[in-house]
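Q: A small favour: would you put together sequence and structure tokens for a protein?
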Amino acid sequence: MKYVLFAALSMFSLFASANDNAADASSVAGQNDQYDYTQDLDIAKVVRISNAGSTASECGPLKAQMEYVDSKGVSHRLEYTRLGDDCEKG
């Protein structure tokens, strides 16, 4: 009886650890997300904001990237569209 219980618990822990590794792999692979204005972001700290290949001194929509850490300590990177800095000069 104890052997069957031990074997069942061992199999359960094996599957639980396999699911945990799959979740970690999917979060690493999906770190470069495209931002949608309907998303609610959990941002605890912004690490870096950068323009994707263009200068910020242009006027018009520009692609930018932001790296941030959420409240659970997980790092994220997302791409979003922002307005260039020269549009604010009037």
